[in-house]
Design brief:
single chain; Growth Hormone, Chain: A; 2 domains
């Protein structure tokens, strides 16, 4: 039986029930990671099948981001009305017919449509699983968010790594899609053991406000972090195939390696921030990410390029949580408004970043475009050095700028 936590209070249930809630929520984060990462190894196949240059591919990669950004505000309204469990169920189900189209679509418009629907479904899933995670934290009165997101990264590793491994053993594309669909069917029943969370009545009353002051600065930094993550998801396999000569079937290992260190970094992230402070973790992350992308982009070696993406995963692991947490403690905006504004700028980076990289690569080269992202990460690290007044790991209030 499922447990609806909307009316529960801490201490009214035992650890066995809490453990069930936590693992059900972790399973949904894991499933989201598997489904989201299943696209990464298929990108070079789609580019070859449809004879797309880098600029055309970059435009095509706008489709999932547009779908996500359009679906997220609507998903919040639907969750407030019907609860996250029901919306998550239908969102995951919606990804199932998209998967074969991602693998086999023979027309650009058809693949763009599939990607838009796929992105809308995953955007809805992202809102739903974070809503459930927040509800588990509220009921248990203890933090779980970092470990939940670690399971997302673990799922991304599982999805990208297993598909790349199967493609290397000549499993057809439709077989890989069938494997992901089977994973959805296998794990989705665990959703009934998770919380049927609903936001509080006033949760969305404040609405969205434009970022300003320090929140705008944090949002721009979040944009860069998401842009680097989107570059890895959408371009790493293409880069490894076209610029490093890696076999197409194995090119997805770049994103898989990125996901390994992303998951490990998130799993231990809370302890790192507690020990070294949020500012040091953020600045070191920017420097490590810039070094990793420079290594991948400038040295013509498959092994060193893979190492570069592995370094990037470790670098980005805790950037967005630190930036969102810092935004929530600024003056002048409510925590929910600040987080919403910062997140929106971040997702804009995920949306337009891959397209910008594709356009820039079309006129220069893909290694040069990735080196440009490395430069942005370096600038973000430098900005982080100047932001110690606002990027903090304690629970006190950070001061705003406007």
């Amino acid at each position: 039986m499922s447990l609806d936590l909307r009316t529960a209070v801490p201490g009214t249930f035992g650890w066995a029930v809490l453990r069930r809630l936590v693992w059900a929520t972790r399973a949904m984060f894991l499933l989201c990671g598997v489904v989201a990462a299943s696209w990464a190894p298929l990108v070079p196949y789609a580019q070859t099948r449809l004879s797309l240059n880098n600029g055309q591919l970059g435009l095509l990669l706008l489709a999932p981001g547009c779908g996500s950004l359009l679906a997220m505000p609507l998903s919040g309204h639907l969750i407030s009305r019907f609860g996250s469990r029901r919306i998550l169920l239908w969102a995951f189900v919606l990804t199932i017919p998209c998967l074969p189209m991602l693998a086999l679509a023979g027309a650009t418009w058809l693949l763009a449509l599939a990607l838009a629907v796929f992105g809308a479904a995953l955007g809805t899933v992202a809102v739903g699983i974070n809503d459930q995670a927040a509800e588990v934290e509220r009921i248990s009165a203890r933090p779980w968010m970092s470990s939940f997101h670690a399971f997302f990264s673990g799922g991304a590793l599982l999805g990208a790594g297993s598909i790349s491994w199967l493609l290397g053993r000549h499993l057809p594309l439709w077989g890989c899609s069938a494997m992901v669909m089977g994973t959805i069917v296998l794990l989705l029943p665990l959703l009934r053991f998770g919380p049927g969370a609903r936001p509080s009545a006033g949760a969305g009353a404040a609405g969205f406000v434009l970022p300003r002051g320090v929140v705008l600065v944090l949002g721009v930094m979040c944009f860069v972090a998401f842009m680097a993550e989107g570059a890895t998801l959408d371009w790493s396999a293409v880069f490894m195939r076209t610029s490093r000569g890696m076999p197409m079937a194995h090119a997805g290992y770049a994103y898989a390696g990125f996901s390994v260190t992303m998951a490990l970094g998130r799993w231990f992230g809370d302890r790192l921030v507690d020990r070294f402070g949020a500012q040091k973790v953020l600045v070191c992350g920017g420097l490590l990410g810039a070094a990793g992308l420079c290594l991948a982009a400038t040295i013509n070696s498959i092994a060193l390029s893979l190492l570069g993406f592995v370094m990037l995963g470790a670098a980005l692991a805790n950037m967005v949580p630190i930036l969102l947490s810092s935004a929530s403690r600024t003056h002048g905006m409510s925590p929910s408004q600040a987080i919403a504004a910062t997140s929106t700028l971040g997702y804009a980076g995920l949306l337009v970043g891959p397209a910008m990289i594709g356009s820039f690569a079309h006129y220069t080269s893909l290694p040069v475009a990735l080196a440009g992202v490395a430069l942005l990460l370096l600038l973000m690290a430098a900005n982080g050095l100047l932001m110690g007044r606002w990027i903090r790991s304690d629970s006190g209030q950070a001061e705003g700028m406007g």
